[in-house]
Amino acid sequence: MVPIYRTVDTKRLFLDTIQREFVRKSIHLMIALVPTMAAWNYQFTVILLIVGILVYTYAEFLRGKGQSVPIISELTALASRDRDKGHFVLGPVTLGIGALSALLLYPHPAATIAIYALAFGDGFSSLAGKLFGGKKIPWTGGKTVAGSLTCFLSVLTAGLFLSDQLLPVLIIAIGATILEALPSKDLDNIIIPIGTGLIADFIAF
Predict the structure, then answer these.
(1) Angle, CA of 104, 123 and 199, to the nearest 5°
(2) Are 81 and 109 in contact (CB under 8 A)?
(3) So what's the pLDDT on residue 201?
(4) By the 8 A CB rule, do 188 and 91 touch?
(5) What does the alpha-carbon distance between residue 107 and residue 198 come to, in Å, rounded to a whole number?
(6) Cα(128)–Cα(117) distance, rounded to whole angstroms?
(7) CA angle at residue 185 from 183 to 189, to 5 degrees?
(8) What burial class does residue 7 get, using C-beta atoms within 10 Å of its C-beta: 0-12 exposed, 13-18 middle, 19+ buried?
(9) Long-range contacts (CB closer than 8 Å, 24 or more residues apart) made by 164-171
(10) What is the pLDDT of residues 112-160, one digit of tens each?
(11) By the number of CB atoms within 10 A of the CB, which of 40, 84, 159, 182 ranks highest?
């Protein structure tokens, strides 16, 4: 019989992990606003992303020195994973760089689907993996079948929202899912949009 305190601790740890993941992915999903903002004012959006990356980097530098920046440092601490404890939390930086790279490298709609793959594909896949767990995919650093399937469906849905060309959208969704499954940690925020945008641009999406 498992001691009650161990069961309670396990549940508390699980809920804490899910809470952190929800906070992280809520921030992650906000990057989906970038294509809409870019359609309204491209230059302003690019500048905003650059400024956001620089401001966060400085705030995180100060946090590492023991100085707290209101809101930014609190959100960072709340959303950070166990592996980030005592380290510079790189995720928001790579998230901004990934979206910025897609905007600078690719035209619409390739840039848009690349950013949606980052926001929805990567964002929802991580939540699904944490919530449902299940069978893990070998050589992916712990990625799950549930997470990868969620990534595929998310990118497929986003792609069909942008275009009625089923075959190109399927190719893009498969490519994004493969990229998301790579054991790249926070670098997936850069790899996914750049790789997905390259695929979309190559097949003239």
Answers:
(1) 45
(2) no
(3) 96
(4) no
(5) 11
(6) 15
(7) 110
(8) exposed
(9) 165/205, 168/200, 168/203, 168/204, 168/205, 169/205, 171/199, 171/203
(10) 999 999 999 998 998 887 777 778 888 887 889 999 999 999 999 999 9
(11) 159
Average pLDDT over residues 79-106: 85
Cα separation of 96 and 198, whole Å?
18
* CB-based contact 69:59 (threshold 8 Å): yes
What's the pLDDT at 8? 52
**Direct distance between the N- and C-terminal alpha carbons of the chain, in angstroms, rounded to an integer:** 57
Evaluate whether 93 touches 172 at the Cβ level (below 8 Å): no
| pLDDT score, position 96 | 95
Element (H, E) at 185: none
Determine contact, residues 23/75, Cβ cutoff 8 Å: yes
Res. 6: pLDDT tops 50: no
Confidence of residue 12 (pLDDT cuts 50, 70, 90): low
Return d(Cα 69, Cα 34) in angstroms, integer: 24
Determine the 3-state secondary structure of 159 from DSSP: helix
Map residue 144 onto helix, strand or coil: strand
